[in-house]
Amino acid sequence: MPVISTRRAEVTDAGTVARFVHALQVELLGRMAPGIEIVTQSAATVLVDVSVVAVIACGDNEPVGVMVLNECTAIYAGGKFGEISELYVRPDMRSQGIAPHLIAVALSEGRERGWKRLEVGAPWQPKWKRTLDFYLRNGFEEVGPRLCRMI
Fold first, then answer.
1. pTM assigned to the model
2. 111 phi and psi angles, rounded to 5 deg
3. How confident is the model over 41-77, as pLDDT tens digits?
4. Which CATH fold topology does 4-137 show?
């Protein structure tokens, strides 16, 4: 098992964050994933937003994963809450405690900010059942599908 550490991503880390988010999109969307240039531009824009926290996970001091956490607000949630919009660990580093470590960071951030809940969207079922099972094992509850409409 590697020694796992995390650090908050800065705007200067946009390329690193983008690499992981792009890999996530390729894994989920295949050829439909946007190009790395578009993802890098988006990462640079998102990382300056104070309501966003991006965390880079390192295994033995080498980047191996990323999590992007957003502060949201909703009446149903009792006010502010957190949403994990992206969480990705390199395939060769999975099942080594890195993703649970990132979730622990999200929970800690949420406690500091006074959030009452943390949400995450799981990818399409049943193809990504392993991902859903991971979140369920880590204390999340299934509350239904998430839908999207482009504007």
1. 0.93
2. -65, -45
3. 999 999 999 999 999 999 999 999 999 999 999 999 9
4. Aminopeptidase (3.40.630)
